[in-house]
Write a structure and sequence with these properties.
Blueprint: H1 3-35, H2 40-61
Length: 65
């Protein structure tokens, strides 16, 4: 396998994770949060996810936080 092929394979898997799996997990999380609307842990969990995604974007873009 070449570096280009590995890059493409990884890119396709990332797209799948973002498009399908992450969306599915967010929907499941939203259902749990809706059942406990006063529970701040769900809001905190999404804040943590948001920060992690921002860190990933910074990494991919070559930016330092």
């Amino acid at each position: 396998m070449t570096a280009e092929q590995e890059y493409q394979r990884n890119a396709e898997q990332i797209e799948n994770l973002i498009a399908q799996l992450l969306k599915h997990e967010l929907e499941a999380h939203a259902g749990k949060a809706a059942a406990r609307p006063a529970d701040w842990s769900y809001a905190g969990s999404l804040g943590h996810v948001r920060e992690g995604l921002a860190e990933l974007l910074d990494f991919l873009g070559g930016n330092e936080r």
